[in-house]
Amino acid sequence: MERKSSRLDGVYASILARRGTQGRLRRLTIPTPETVDFSSNSYLSLSRDQDIWSAYLDRLQQSPANQGFSLGSGGSRLLDGNSAAAEALECTAAAFHGAPAGLLFNSGFEANTGLFGCAPQPGDVVVYDELIHASVHDGIRLSRARGISFAHNCVRGKSRTSLDHVLSELTQGQDGHRLRAGEINVFVAVESVYSMDGDLAPLADIVECVEERLPNGNGYIVVDEAHATGWLGERGRGLVCHLGLEDRVWARVHTFGKAMGCAGAIVLCSPTTRQYLINYARSFIYTTAMGYPTLAGIQTAYEYLESGRVEPRLAHLRSLIKHTHRLLTSICTRHQPPPRDVVLYTKEGVPESPIIPLFTAHARSLAEYLQRRGFMVRPIVAPTVPAGTDRVRLCLHAGNTMEEVQGLCKAIDEWVAEKLSESGEPSEKPSKL
Ligand SMILES: Cc1ncc(COP(=O)(O)O)c(C=O)c1O
Fold it and tell me: Relative to the CA of 256, which ligand 1 atom is closest?
């Protein structure tokens, strides 16, 4: 008799083959250490910093015996997995980001699914930016709320899909009177820095809009600061602190796996909300808590940020962003008319973040070309991003040098010239960048 699993493998194999023919098959690769990193989310290059590593080892050596010699936590925080170190880290992070309280989660993904899965009450609504992270979508699916998207970063545009329009429709719709009376809660979910486009949310305007449309205080803004944590604002406190909106944003999610070079996340919120999450957030309750080595790494990274030693790195990162912008703009200007389908760099001003998308219908070709020249970049294609917006996602890091950026842009320039000559379009010779 044919084994069940082999029949199922056959089903999977044909699904994978279909995906393969569409050029959308996902694969695991091991990053090669000798390539120059223009891909990871380690924006500050802290994960390999010698000083932080030494401070981390010292912390492990000096930790109390009941904490320091345990690789794992031993259980859920609600059973045996809680520790003074976990609670101390929550206080450190909350103080650093100017929040009343915080609750750790094992990842940003779990923080979002935990928060959105239980925060809305029956009948509540979650209004979210259309480019919000997959984990928020999954959280909404787990919740008892209705989800409605608004157009990316469109707060007050005339479009019927602007945030203002969506909120206005809600307050005039079927349950409008209950919404206006503050009996239905509206959660508004945005990211401070969008992970694929690298643009910032117009957060001050979003806050104004929500307060105007929901004056009874039933608009609750949740900001996912995953890609802002550690580098945006003074000492990397994030966008909410940078704009002084701590008291007008209901909850924030900070993740430790990106600029902070560690792993895990925290939801910043009121003490009562924290207590509610402890009771109802399934991804907090039904999982083994972080062990001491992980907590110690995050605590060490926070101390580094708070000490101000991060400032020279931030300054270097800002210059890299400006320099890259100059070089990419010059590539596009020289290959006029703009090389349609080849590479489209759309930033008019200096990019707002170290994430710079290079839109091209040939994302895989560009990424492979750059990888062969020793630059690690990755193609990001549908369904990870909306169809028609395939790109190579360039990520700059404080650990990159000006020369590396120069080399990368020179290779992009050569690729553009090659592609254009293949397509028969006239192309400028790559010139000295
Ligand atoms: C905006 C955003 N939120 C949340 C997450 C999830 O964070 P983590 O990697 O810690 O699970 C990510 C990571 O890709 C992200 O980009």
Answer: 10
CA of 108 to the centre of ligand 1 (A): 5
Q: What's the chain's average pLDDT? A: 92
Number of neighbours of residue 136 by Cβ within 10 angstroms:
25
pLDDT at 384: 85
Nearest ligand 1 atom to the CA of 195 is: 16
pLDDT of residue 6: 87
Closest CA to 342 of 370, 368, 362: 362
SS3 assignment, position 165: helix
Tell me the CA–centroid distance for residue 335 and ligand 1, in Å: 36
Domains held by the chain: number? 2
Atom of ligand 1 nearest to the CA of 265: 10
Asked, for residue 433, whether it belongs to a domain, the answer is: no
Q: 152 is written with which tokens? A: 């990316």
Q: Is the pLDDT of residue 338 over 80?
A: no
pLDDT category at 429 given cuts 50, 70, 90 is low
Give this complex's ipTM. Answer: 0.99
Is 185 among the domain residues?
Answer: yes
Report the alpha-carbon angle 293-295-298, nearest 5. Answer: 110
Choose which residue among 199, 232, 255, 267 to substitute to test ligand 1 binding: the one with the highest number of ligand atoms within 8 A of its C-beta.
255
CA of 104 to the centre of ligand 1 (A): 14
For 90-138, write each residue's pLDDT tens digit.
Answer: 999 999 999 999 999 999 999 999 999 999 999 999 999 999 999 999 9
Task: Give the domain extent around 378.
Answer: 29-44+311-422
Find the CATH number of the domain harbouring 153.
3.40.640.10
Q: Tell me the per-residue pLDDT of 388-423, one tens digit each, with 9 for 90 and over.
A: 889 999 999 999 999 999 999 999 999 988 888 887
Same domain, 63 and 38: no
Pocket of ligand 1 (CB under 6 A): 107-109, 112, 133, 135, 191, 195, 224, 226-227, 255, 257, 265
Q: Are residues 36 and 84 in the same domain?
A: no
DSSP-assigned states of every residue in 201-260: P-HHHHHHHHHHH-TTS-EEEEEE-TTTTTTSSGGG--HHHHTT-TTT-SEEEEESSSTT
